[in-house]
């Protein structure tokens, strides 16, 4: 493989592609649901996508030495595919692009998007090592629908239930996402909320918080919940119970993480579906 190809693959891997893509697609789907104007939806998508690139690259840049310490060969900086300096440059450039595009959608939208970025960056810089590791996720995911709705440019604002559901989605996803790397994190001095809860505790808390996000989305919009929303919430609750039970009985299993991700996906679907209920 050429040096350029190796660098491109390394940069892509350092974005944390799966969660970055999920967040970006969430923003796109919600934008189309709130205001199905292609131009606005594309602006939202590129803004959020650039922000996710920035957050992912800054994470691997800041964690490069720690990842080498524990031999994380899945990390491109450890394999030598990309340098920390290159990731640092990319992170700042992508952040600048996201900020400029965010404010192009309006002042309120720009400020909300800036809050999303700051949530991701402050987590990488400091919060991930503290008991408040959940807070940047709550802020960033709570502000994401605020940005999407404000970017529609018609004066509407995200309702409180949507902000709360987004915050719960972020906190639950954070706790679940740490499960696969819990021991490696601890070995290098990272002691966020999931690490303090322990594997069993985090396996129970993550799906329950995510299911709470589903419940808020079911109960929040005006007019009462639809049968479909009730059904999705019920399924999310059952999956959350299963994830918690397996986490207690088989803490080393990957099942609690996978089930928690399924609950997170249901929460995302519910928020997007309920996006049409956003009024001025």
From TrEMBL:
It is found in: Membrane. This is 4-hydroxybenzoate polyprenyltransferase. The chain crosses the membrane at residues 12-32, 107-127, 134-152, 158-180, 201-220, 226-249, 256-278. It is a multi-pass membrane protein. Keywords: Membrane, Transmembrane, Transmembrane helix. InterPro entries: UbiA_prenyltransferase, UbiA_sf. Its main location: membrane. It comes from Isoptericola halotolerans.
């Amino acid at each position: 493989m050429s040096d350029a190809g190796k660098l491109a693959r390394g940069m892509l891997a350092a974005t944390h592609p799966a969660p970055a893509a999920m967040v970006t697609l969430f923003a796109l789907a919600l934008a189309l649901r709130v205001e199905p104007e292609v131009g606005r939806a594309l602006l939202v998508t590129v803004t959020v996508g650039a922000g996710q690139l920035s957050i992912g690259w800054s994470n691997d840049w800041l964690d490069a030495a720690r990842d080498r310490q524990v031999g994380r060969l899945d990390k491109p900086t450890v394999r030598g595919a990309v340098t920390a300096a290159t990731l640092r440059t990319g992170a700042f450039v992508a952040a600048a692009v996201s900020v400029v595009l965010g404010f192009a959608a309006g002042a309120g939208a720009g400020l909300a998007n800036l809050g999303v970025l700051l949530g991701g960056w402050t987590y990488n810089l400091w919060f991930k090592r503290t008991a408040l590791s959940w807070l940047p996720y709550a802020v960033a995911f709570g502000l994401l629908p605020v940005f999407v709705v404000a970017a529609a440019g018609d004066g509407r604002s995200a309702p409180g239930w949507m902000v709360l559901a987004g915050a719960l989605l972020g906190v639950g996803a954070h706790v679940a996402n740490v499960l696969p790397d819990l021991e490696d994190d601890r070995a290098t001095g990272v002691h966020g909320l999931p690490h303090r809860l322990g594997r069993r505790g985090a396996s129970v808390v993550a799906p329950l918080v995510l299911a709470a996000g589903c419940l808020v989305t079911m109960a929040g919009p005006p007019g009462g919940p639809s049968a479909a929303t009730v059904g999705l919430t019920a399924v999310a609750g059952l999956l959350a119970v299963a994830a918690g039970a397996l986490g207690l009985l088989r803490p080393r299993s990957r099942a609690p993480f996978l089930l928690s991700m399924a609950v997170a996906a249901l929460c995302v679907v519910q928020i997007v579906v309920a996006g049409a209920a956003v009024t001025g």
